[in-house]
Structure formats: C-alpha cells, structure tokens
Design goal:
Length: 263
C-alpha cells in the first residue's frame, strides 16, 4: 500500500495483466467493508430485489427502472467507487474510464457452474481498441466449498463472440489457470474479453458463494449499455457522489450508445 492506502501495482503486475488478461488481488477488500457488503447481498437476494432488477432488464420499455439499484445500497455504492480499486484501474487503462454495471449475488451451495464465456461488450466484433475490465469481488473468498474460477490466459486477444466456447461447458482446457484458493475479500480483475468459466464445487461440504462484480470501460469509444435503465443508473451514481470528486468520467452518459434489446 502507498501512503494513501492504495495498493501500488508493480510493473510486472501491469505487464502480466496485459499479457495474461487477469490480475489476482488476494484479500483486497478490508474486512470492515466485506462485513457490510454481505448483509446487503442477503437483502438484495432474499427480498426479491435481485429478481426485480433482472425483470426490469426484460421490460419492453427502455424507460422501465427497478425500485432500487445495487449502487444505492450503501456498501455497494462504496464498492463501485472504491478508491484503491479505481486507482488500480487507472493504472491499467488510464485516468478516464466509465462505470458500466454491477451485479450482486449469493449463490446457493452446490450451484451449477457457468460455461466458458467472455463479457466484453464492445461492437463491432473486431473492435478491441479499448479495454473493459470486470472486477470480481469474492466476499467469502474461494475454496473447494464454493467452486473455482478458471481463466484462459491470453484469450482476451482473440476476436471471438462471447459464447464461442460455451459448447465446451466448464471442461478443462489446455493452458487454463484455475483460481480456487483465495481469502475473504479477494478480487480478481479480468480483461472483459478473457474467456473464463465458473467451476462448480465438488460433492461434499458446500457453502454459499457471495460475489459482487462491477465493470468499467476505458473512455475513447462509445460502449453499448446492457441495462435499459442505464441513464438512471449513471444519474444515481452522480447524485450519490460515488466518484468521490476524483473521477469525473465515472458516471458520464456521453460514453455510451443507445440501448439495443438483445435479439
């Protein structure tokens, strides 16, 4: 950490991110923040707020908005604009980047895995000129009781659709790296074009998996939003001051195209 409490990246960590497409930050989030995030995740899931948020994305009217956003939960809002995280992102993509979206979930013990995919939103397909980053925050860490994250180093340099490897399920692939042991509060930063998969936990002892992911896009191109209520999301980020007065582009609308409903 530097004298402002920000994790200072070494040059080789920056180089590894660009070469491999991911960066592992064990125990990155302080226990105090994790302790406030977990009950907010419980509320988000148990009250039906998560389901209503998903339903709002399926609303035929782009103006439809959910009653509450993840970033309106106090600790989630802090996480979206968490200064040490944004400082690291600025080291990777430069000083101007914009918040894209946040997802929060508590997965049941023994939940199924998720097939190989990537989450890069830029189009057309051949455009990889700017970087999108997904920050995967594992509140309870990772171990065999919650499954593992498998990543395919270097695959972020491919020009491929999100589901180009989905037919493979979660099978082991040559060259993959499996991240399966991380302490509570750990974060994995992914170049969003990196192929990755969620491996289910093996049979036996299992526990719930708490994860919040937030994504950020390098400025310089127009990014497609994934939520029809994206303007409302950005406006709330500005109103709540989640940029901390330091990142003026973090919730700026001008970096997005219009929302297009998936076909």
């Amino acid at each position: 950490m530097d004298n402002q409490g920000t994790l200072a990246l070494e040059s080789d960590q920056v180089a590894d991110f660009f070469e491999l497409g991911f960066l592992v930050l064990p125990g990155f989030l302080p226990a105090e923040l994790v302790g406030r995030l977990e009950p907010e995740v419980d509320r988000w899931v148990d009250s039906g707020l998560r389901d209503r948020s998903i339903a709002a994305c399926l609303d035929p009217e782009p103006s439809g908005t959910p009653g509450l956003l993840e970033i309106e939960l106090t600790a989630h809002g802090e996480l979206a604009g968490y200064p040490p995280l944004l400082s690291i992102i600025s080291r990777l993509v430069g000083p101007e980047f914009v918040f894209h979206h946040m997802h929060s979930n508590r997965q049941a013990p023994g939940a199924a895995g998720k097939e190989w995919h990537h989450d890069y939103e830029q189009g057309p397909l051949a455009d990889r000129s700017k970087i999108m980053i997904h920050a995967l925050h594992y509140l309870g860490g990772l171990d065999r009781t919650v499954g593992a994250l498998a990543v395919l180093p270097g695959s972020h340099r491919e020009v491929a659709g999100k589901r180009a490897r989905a037919h493979l399920g979660t099978v082991e692939l040559p060259g993959e790296v499996v991240i399966e042991e991380l302490p509570a509060g750990s974060t994995v930063l992914l170049h969003s074009a990196l192929f990755h998969a969620r491996r289910p936990s093996p049979a036996g002892q299992r526990r719930e998996r708490y994860m919040v992911d937030s994504s950020y896009c390098q400025c310089g191109v127009s990014w497609p939003p994934v939520k029809p209520y994206w303007r409302h999301l950005l406006a709330r980020g500005r109103e709540l001051g989640l940029d901390g007065g330091r990142w003026p582009e973090l919730f700026a609308e001008r970096h997005f195209t219009e929302y297009v409903r998936p076909s």
